[in-house]
Amino acid sequence: MDEKVKNNFFFDWIMPIAVAVIVVLLVNHFLIFQIEVKSGSMTPTLLKKDRLMSTVIYDYKSIKRGDIITFYSREYDDLFVKRVVGLPGENVDIDDKGIVYINGKKLNESYVKYPSPKEGHFKIPNGKYLMLGDDREISDDARYWKNPYIDKSDIKGKVRIRVFPFDRIGSVQ
């Protein structure tokens, strides 16, 4: 092989493939990532084995109540997917019928189809969030954790799209 053929092969094949791999790795690390739902705690919104795409969160002020978030649990040493119920500085009360109150005002949670009688009172510290599953009957969430608050630095992303199974592809809310 002469030098010109080697250069053409490098610039026509090797270089574009290397650039594509680098771009994919950067996008996957800094912009979006995929996660699989490991439990039924978010039923009926998300089902076990659903594959989701999350966008990386850089501005924690953009996190709103009701967002479905991917976060790292230090207690379980794993990534979880739950819904944001309580924001920094709020008081959250859950009564024996599973109704959630934020600073004394009832929270409308149309996504909760299976409430739980597990009561709780939470005063959320600054920089922390309270996460609950949508299927409160079976969800292992803040009501049961040793430390019920998730630090903003452990929040990895906001769930945007379900990409699998194919018959349920679409945005997640």
Strand and helix layout:
Blueprint: H1 3-30, E1 32-36, E2 51-56, E3 68-73, E4 78-86, E5 91-94, E6 100-102, E7 105-106, E8 120-123, E9 128-132, E10 149-151, E11 155-164, E12 170-171
Antiparallel strand pairs: 1-2, 2-11, 3-4, 3-11, 4-9, 5-6, 5-8, 6-7, 9-10, 11-12
The gist of it:
This protein is an alpha+beta fold and 173 residues long. It is built from one helix and twelve strands.
Largest sheet: 8 strands, antiparallel
**Average pLDDT number:** 86
Termini, distance in Å? 57 Å
What is the 3D form?
Answer: elongated
Q: Briefly note the structural class of the backbone.
A: alpha+beta
Give me the strand/helix succession.
Answer: HEEEEEEEEEEEE
Share of residues in helices = 10-25%
Contiguous helical run count: 1
Question: In percent, how much strand structure appears in the residues?
Answer: 25-35%
How many β-strand stretches?
Answer: 12
Overall radius of gyration: 21 Å
Quaternary state reads single chain
